[in-house]
């Protein structure tokens, strides 16, 4: 990969991993726009039961929450870690051990949550763990603000991609996530994910072994955008992917005065989006029932599972 702007060195000098391409000298301790520096930082590594049923099942998903994020979503539900405020540094060796420990806890899979800004190290840890007998599927859980060439580093190592598609409208992406290019970048990234994992597979329990599940979190007042996203995904990928429509948006203190983001999506708004998905012909999808919008899907970022016992 000579000349590749991603640079293969573990410590990421002149970082170009994500679309921000900020060029931070992370090897020297400088932080990128994602908030990440030289070392991997994670805030939690534990069984997680709040993903889609085919991911969490009854045994849980082995979720590893990474600190930092290249997006700056004003409504971020995980601000504590996305801004790099929570978490502890771990080595590649320790990260590989964590993967093995989660498998020993009978996790259905290893779930890498927002790991894109550590891709070279994550790739190395996965190779180490697989060499030691890691056999459960690996899930890559991402905002989709990724470069396809970066995602190719994971080809053959990731079994399930779990990306968001937040917006197709660049203005919304700019206003809400400080990334006007998000729609273009996310569509390119998802296309690469589907190329790598073109068909879904499940085991006898209904747990996904391979596949792509694209998530969309309905934002209050933005049903039309949600419909555009459903239509785009269905027309582009059909039954090669699953679509997960979520209603769990919860206003944070940062947006409490916003006329739209300061409230939750209504039951009627969510029903309109679900009805549209069914009318459009979506057959492979997930939706949230009842009062899930009142529940907290945010775990405590208390360093559980980060350190060796």
Automatic annotation (TrEMBL):
Its cofactor is [4Fe-4S] cluster. Residues 65-198 form the Radical SAM core domain. Pfam families: Radical_SAM. GO terms for molecular function: 4 iron, 4 sulfur cluster binding; metal ion binding; oxidoreductase activity. PROSITE patterns: RADICAL_ACTIVATING (PS01087). Binds 1 [4Fe-4S] cluster. The cluster is coordinated with 3 cysteines and an exchangeable S-adenosyl-L-methionine. It comes from the Bacteria. [4Fe-4S] cluster binds at residues 69, 73, 76. Belongs to the organic radical-activating enzymes family. This is Radical SAM protein.
